Amino acid sequence: MKVRALLFGTLGAMAILLISIFFDNAISKRKKSVPDQTDMSYVRKWKERGKTYGSALYITDNAEISTPWIEKLHRTDIVDIRIDKSLEGKTLKKGDRHAELVLNSKTPVPDVVLIQVGCNDTPDADTTATNYSRYIFDYPLAYIQNTKGTGRRHKKAAVGRDMKEIDSSSLAGPIVKLVSKIRTQWPEALVFLAPPVKDEATADENENRKISQIRRIANMLAIPFIDKDWEMLADYSFVWNKQKEKPNIGNILILGDSYSEQGLWTKHLNEFINARIVNLAVSSATLKDNFYYTEAPYTSHPDKDDNRGNNNTLACQVEKLIRLMNNHGSAGIPASYSPDFILLQGGINDNPDPISSSQAYSFAIKSDIRTNFAGATAYLTKRLHTMFPKAQIMVTTPSGLYYGHTSRPFDFIVKAEQMRKAASLSKVKTINWDREGRLTYIFNNPAHTGKGTKTSPIIYNNPTPETIDMLHPNETGSRWLAITAAKELIKNKKNN
User: Fold this and answer.
1) Cβ-contact 397, 416 below 8 angstroms
2) Burial profile 55-84: b = 16 or more Cβ within 10 angstroms, e = fewer
3) How far apart are CA 321 and CA 459, in angstroms?
4) Tens digit of pLDDT for each residue in 142-170?
5) Strand partners, 409
6) Mean pLDDT highest for which of 24-33, 385-394, 441-450, 468-477?
7) Which residues contact 460 (CB under 8 A, 6 or more apart)?
8) What is the 3-state secondary structure (H, E, C) of the chain?
9) Residue whose C-alpha is closest to residue 341's, from 286, 388, 387
10) Distance of CA 456 to CAs 28, 284, 357, 452, Å?
11) At the top level of CATH, which class does the domain 246-495 belong to?
12) How far is CA 153 from the centre of its chain?
């Protein structure tokens, strides 16, 4: 018995030793096959567990602050990271340590660009942060000419400065120029901004001010401000980690304006998901009623030329849906139709609400006042949930295009906050094109198309890299919107 026990003990020890050697060799091989991830020329090629890794370029100006963020990102196993430390120790704003990033044209195209800069800067004065738009736009009283017509008119419009003329006296200017360089060199890369501190939880007063200011700039650029656990980045991994079968979202009903009617972002949506889309959007539609008169029924034939009445609202598109489900029209919809998701895409043609307090919104919902975002959203969600009780309703916030045609280039941010508040009161979720849609007038404006004089008017409604007319997205811009919408649809389908 003792000999047998000794024999089994010896064999057991040998087995453990062999297993240990096997795993040590496997780990050693894995380590040898992974180059130094600070090597700017490296992009991982292999696949593990059927997963395709995306490549991320991490731009930092303070390695000590970025290290815990990078370590946490490594542990998420979302992307491979290449670190650009060329700004190490530098400041964004003017001063002895100021420097601007120079991108290497030979650097492999990244899927993601993560920007954590401003770490070595002091926060801007509150008055400066309030007026960031003044560092990016001129506000000339200029002659404006529409490329589709010959009429000229005086109009105070926000006209973008040339990137070379944007100064570096605030955080806004350098970040705008940095993002512009990245978008120009890698137009398909997903750009994110990260807080310029080691840990948000322990940030002091000045650091919190700086976080708030860079978050504000990210919103102006309509690019995501990343969270500390990188959860948002994981939500976007479907863009580079494409599976053999796309997520099946089911039936999607879209009520919207010209963004949806043109059919571009909805087309790109099917690049990332499988969905059967019914699109009833009408150009120039508003989410809100234009005047308070609830007794009059909405038309089931929305009129895109009715810019002042209530005959081209999203509520009219609901009536159009009912008409088509009753087979009254050439494009009939089955009476049994049942959407899994309903997207209310609007707000672009609406003005901001003059009063958006919770008290005012609660009163509007209670009193069925549909001339503000809260009352209109409440009416639509109640009406649609009566028809489709199992459908998930989501509201898209406006993108950052067009508003520079006025003297208020960031009205879209004001409206988006109001629409989020309204959606929350109706217990529906939002697709945040204003924060994550990556379309902004800053990079799509009529800068330097003229001098603003009678003989050399500023031209607007001309195509830009992401638009067909500085208002409506082209293929490139529509893909950005589709990615943001797909992210929310996939996430909410999983959680449903």
Assistant:
1) yes
2) bbbbbbbbeebbeebbeebeeeebbbbbbb
3) 39
4) 788 887 777 777 777 788 888 888 989 99
5) none
6) 385-394
7) 144, 145, 146, 147, 157, 405, 446, 449, 470
8) CHHHHHHHHHHHHHHHHHHHHHHHHHHHHHHHHCCCCCCCCCCCCCCECCECCEEEEEEECCHHHHHHHHHHHHHHCCEEEEEECCCCCCECCCCCCECCCCCCCCCCCCCEEEEECCCCCCCCCHHHHHCCHHHHEECCEEEEEECCCCCEEEEECCEECCHHHCCCCCCHHHHHHHHHHHHHHCCCCEEEECCCCCCHHHCCHHHHHHHHHHHHHHHHHCCCECCCCCHHHHHCHHHCCCCCCCCEEEEEEEECCHHHHCCHHHHHHCCCCEEEEEECCCCCCECCCCCCCCCCCCCCCCCCCCCCCCCCEHHHHHHHHHHHHCCCCCCCCCCCCCCCEEEEECCCCCCCCCCCCHHHHHHHHHCCCCCCHHHHHHHHHHHHHHHCCCCEEEEECCCECCHHHCCCCCHHHHHHHHHHHHHHHCCCEEECHHHHCCCEHHHCCCCCCCCCCCCCCEEECCCECCECCCCCECHHHHHHHHHHHHHHHHHHHHHC
9) 388
10) 67, 30, 44, 6
11) alpha beta
12) 34
β 152-156/141-146 pair status: antiparallel
Q: If you search the block for the tokens 């990260």, which residue do you land on?
A: 194
Query: How far apart are alpha carbons 462 and 471 in whole angstroms?
Result: 9
The answer to whether the beta carbons of residues 461 and 472 sit under 8 Å apart is no
322 is written with which tokens?
């009912």
28-47 CB burial, b ≥16 within 10 A, e <16: eeeeeeeeeeeeeebbbeee
> Are the beta carbons of 384 and 339 closer than 8 angstroms?
no
Dump pLDDT digits (tens) for 425-434. 999 999 999 9
Per residue in 185-243, pLDDT (tens digit) is 999 999 999 999 999 999 999 999 999 999 999 999 999 999 777 889 999 999 998 77
Half-sphere exposure of 139 (CA within 13 A, CB side): 11
The token duo for 272 is 């990332």
Q: Please tell me the number of Cα atoms within 13 Å of 251 on its side-chain side.
A: 12
Separation of alpha carbons 331 and 172, rounded Å:
49
Sorted by where each begins, the domain ranges of the chain are 54-132+170-234, 246-495
Instruction: Answer yes or no: same fold for 54-132+170-234 and 246-495.
Output: yes
Beta bridge partners of 274: 248
Which superfamily, per CATH, for 54-132+170-234? SGNH hydrolase (3.40.50.1110)
Q: What are 357's two structure tokens?
A: 């307090």
